[in-house]
Amino acid sequence: MKTLKFKTNIKCSGCIATVTPHLNALDGVENWKVDLENPEKILSVESTGATESQIIDSVITAGYKIEKMS
Q1: Mind giving me the DSSP string for the chain?
Q2: What is the model's pTM?
């Protein structure tokens, strides 16, 4: 399993509720969370198969900005 990290503009529990069905629908996403305390709103995804591009597409589809952390 690998952990992928992204900067997002997911800023509140309502935003998390909006993105939840999109991320939970991806095959290979075991667990995910957004650090709302961090100014960059870091999304951490534990993946056993979902790719970075699938996660990015899913969050964009939910209506949020996302950028891979280097």
Answers
A1: -EEEEEEE---SHHHHHHHHHHHHTSTTEEEEEEETTSTT-EEEEEESS--HHHHHHHHHHTT--EEE--
A2: 0.94
The structure tokens listed for 11 are: 């800023």
For the chain, what are the domain ranges?
A: 2-68
Domain 2-68's class? alpha beta
pLDDT tens digit sequence for 12-66: 999 999 999 999 999 999 999 999 999 999 999 999 999 999 999 999 999 999 9
d(CA 4, CA 59): 14
Bridge partners of 35, per DSSP, are 42
